[in-house]
Amino acid sequence: MPVGFVGHGAPTLAIDPGKGGDLARWSQGLRKPRAILTISAHWEDAPATAGTTRVRDLMYDFYGFPDELYEIEYPSPGAPDLVRRVASLMGGELSQEDRPLDHGVWVPLLHMAPQADVPVLQLSLPSRQGPQALFELGRNLAPLREEGVFILGSGNIVHNLRRLTWGAEPAAPPAWAAEFDQWAREVLDRGDFDALVDYREKSPGLGLAHPTEEHFQPLLVAAGAASVAQSTSSYPVEGFEYGSISRRCVQFG
């Protein structure tokens, strides 16, 4: 299986047929996975922890959005076997919580796996362990690719909620957002994972692009999983929304 990173943007992606259609077209080019292992910006916990393995009501971890978003269901099967396999890849230890899927997972999957018939397991983002540890987590998970598991990081390559543009989209994103997004693409194009992991020193304008870093860091886990085998990067979705949130999605392999 390839490895993916999805720019999940705002929760309204769930009910946006245009932006959702972009994700649907991407997923239609992939073979159906045996299971999906997701790492979302919206669950930070260290050490890495597995979420629910049963069908649960979703986590609507947002406020002030249209009522219809709080009525959406996504009853994907749990993946208890995958918990055991992930634990073995991580040295036999994996904490588990009965935590439902958050919107960083179910919103994109509404479009990417709309039948909700693929088992889904969410793994927490152990962000406080640092960039290198996140990359190594991905490397540890890499054997799952050969077992039909789609590893999917979910965040945004540029994400600053303080700099959103409401109303009509501007003709172009601000320079700081475009520069950071382009830097990420160039690093991925040349497979320079060392620079990606060292983003705190190598990237331009990190403080503007990411006042907090959790939306960038799932990309490190995905890149780690891709780095074990020779992988090329492609970008099934690009562009910006709300002025400066990057919609860039990445497919490795």
Keywords:
253 residues; Protocatechuate 4,5-dioxygenase, Chain B; alpha/beta; 18% strand; six-stranded mixed sheet; two-stranded parallel ribbon
Word description of this protein:
The protein has helices spanning 17-28, 80-89, 103-112, 131-141, 175-189, 193-197, 199-202, 206-209, 218-227, and strands at residues 3-7, 35-44, 49-50, 95-96, 120-125, 149-155, 233-237, 240-241, 245-246, 249-252. The protein has one domain (3-252): LigB-like (Protocatechuate 4,5-dioxygenase, Chain B, 3-Layer(aba) Sandwich), CATH 3.40.830. Helix content is 32%, strand content 18%. β8 (240-241) and β9 (245-246) form a beta hairpin.
Topology, element by element:
Blueprint: E1 3-7, H1 17-28, E2 35-44, E3 49-50, H2 80-89, E4 95-96, H3 103-112, E5 120-125, H4 131-141, E6 149-155, H5 175-189, H6 193-197, H7 199-202, H8 206-209, H9 218-227, E7 233-237, E8 240-241, E9 245-246, E10 249-252
Helix pairs in contact: 1-3, 4-9
GO molecular function, one term: zinc ion binding
Cofactor: Zn(2+)
Protein name: Dioxygenase
What is the name of the CATH superfamily?
A: LigB-like
**How are the strands ordered across the major sheet?**
5-2-6-1-10-7
CATH class type: Alpha Beta
Q: How do the helices and strands follow one another from N- to C-terminus? A: EHEEHEHEHEHHHHHEEEE
Number of strands: 10
Main sheet specs: 6 strands, mixed
The termini sit apart by 8 Å
Helix content: 25-40%
Backbone structural class: alpha/beta
Taking pLDDT < 50 over at least 5 consecutive residues as the criterion, the unreliable ranges are: none
- The overall number of domains is 1
Average pLDDT, rounded to a whole number, is 96
Any idea what the shape is? globular
CATH fold label: Protocatechuate 4,5-dioxygenase, Chain B
